[in-house]
Amino acid sequence: MSTPTSDGKMDLDVGNVEQAVSTGALPGWDDVESHVGAAYERYRSHQAGVVADYIPALAEADPEAFGITVAEVNGELHPAGTASAVFSIQSIAKAFVYALVCEALGHDGVRDRVGVNNTGLAFNSVIAIELNDGHPMNPMVNAGAMATTAMIPGATAAEQWEQIRSGLSRFAGRQLELDGGVYRSEMLTNQRNRAIAALLESYGRIHIDPLEVVDVYTRQCSLLVDSRDLAVMGATLADGGVNPLTQQRVVSAGVCRDTLSVLAATGMYERSGEWLFEIGLPAKSGVAGGIVAVAPGKGAIGTYSPRLDSAGNSVRGQRATAYLSRTLGLNLFASNAYSEQGSDQQ
Ligand code: GLN
């Protein structure tokens, strides 16, 4: 049994034992292609959910847009629908900024300053900060994400922003651009994020100007991506940190493992448990309508559809990812009995 240490962290006593890796393979190219096409056809006419409008510029999104891309770790891409429709990455940036900070500061350096547990509360919750004496519990919601952004190396906010933009671009395998309209729109309406940053400063959790942290955070949320970018970014996390298109190492394999475990616990806001139960994959969503789901060692699914459920997760994106998790055999918790091996593997 593991025993809690005085600071509440688990003491697992595994030492420096080497971490072996065991995953599996995707079905063949033709099967992946046809399942992606089937997912698109199955959900393309679904109308449930509403487009986010609390950031005014997001309300301008085409509610019909629906793109899916599966990226394999060998670099093969399987797009369907409006796979190259662009949208702002929003909260999905949190996953990749977290990975960059873990790469720069190391597992323990980040772990000591931002927790890895789900708050169980909405992504812009202030109560979650107060309930934990100002210690941000979850790097995938706004408080923890702003604390993480503040840790990005750089002497100025401009340098930090450049680190984030170039780092996320390395994950995507192409230079990502800022959507100035979305950025300005959010900066005019993000009083709550400013309050969260000020609260973090009051608890001594960030040591630089909180308004500058909000500015860099809002920029990272406003980077433009399409479903293909999300799939490639996710496939980099699935590929031990090497971008399958550029073959460039972006982060270490250990950072990918740490990031994906945080995503599994927290990536879908307060619905993360339900998501893991139904889909069985680490994932992250954003309020513009993107979702990335990662199958370690295999690849990733990027989806875009702007109609959201009440937690801020894309309805068609969740459905398409659930369908592909099942048909491509991606659920990390699924197994078949040894005695039945050779029969249908799902
Ligand atoms: N920029 C958004 C915000 O801070 C991101 C939120 C999200 O995607 N859930 O409100």
Low-confidence stretches: 1-6
Number of helices: 13
Helix and strand pattern: EEHEEEEHHHHHHHHEHHHEEEEH
User: What is the strand arrangement across the widest sheet?
Assistant: 5-4-10-9-8
What general form does the structure show?
A: globular
> Approximately how much beta-strand content do the residues carry?
5-15%
Q: Count up the domains.
A: 1
User: Could you tell me which ligands this complex binds, including any ions or cofactors?
Assistant: glutamine
Structure explained in plain terms:
The protein is α+β, with helices and mostly antiparallel strands and 346 residues long. It has one domain (24-53, 60-327): Beta-lactamase. Helix content is 42%, strand content 11%. α5 packs across α8, α5 packs across α9 and α6 (157-172) runs parallel beside α9. The longest helix is centred in the middle third of the chain and has 16 residues, at 157-172. The protein is globular and about 60 Å long. The model is unreliable at 1-6 (pLDDT under 50). Bound molecules: glutamine.
Describe how the helices and strands are arranged.
Elements: E1 3-4, E2 10-11, H1 29-43, E3 50-51, E4 67-72, E5 77-81, E6 87-88, H2 92-105, H3 107-111, H4 127-131, H5 142-150, H6 157-172, H7 180-189, H8 191-202, H9 210-221, E7 224-225, H10 227-238, H11 253-266, H12 272-278, E8 283-285, E9 290-295, E10 299-304, E11 307-308, H13 315-327
Antiparallel strand pairs: 1-2, 3-11, 4-5, 4-10, 6-7, 8-9, 9-10
This protein binds glutamine (GLN).
